[in-house]
Write a structure and sequence with these properties.
It contains 4 helices and no strands. It is mostly helical and 115 residues long.
């Protein structure tokens, strides 16, 4: 089993922190950026197409909740089930950068900031 480690490359495009995710830690998922099977994820596709490291790089929306790719029915269900707050994660990335976000999430041992 992997250990939680501070690694900015493990910040998912949507702001979640793969480095603290149970699936990543149990080696069931390679993490968002290396998961070539995640072609279903519109956020991942959008960020890859635009060469963004995360949604925090997008200038089209000052509030990510206004983005239909970020704020869709699947993401709302995911947030409810996993009690995640991706919007707060994106804001933290904008405030602290990818490295700062990864460091905070590593210290918290969480994949997301709480709702």
């Amino acid at each position: 089993m992997r250990q939680i480690a501070n690694n900015a490359n493990l910040v998912a495009f949507c702001g979640l922190y793969c480095g603290s995710c149970w699936a990543y830690l149990r080696e069931r998922c390679p993490g968002c950026k290396d998961n070539v099977k995640a072609t279903w994820c519109k956020i991942r596709t959008c960020c890859l197409d635009k060469n963004y490291k995360s949604c925090a790089d997008c200038a089209a929306f000052s509030d990510v909740k206004d983005c239909r790719k970020f704020n869709n029915a699947i993401s709302k269900v995911f947030a409810l089930i996993f009690r995640s707050n991706r919007k707060a994660c994106i804001q933290q990335i904008r405030d602290k950068g990818l490295n700062g976000h990864a460091e905070i999430m590593t210290l918290l041992k969480k994949h997301s900031l709480p709702r």
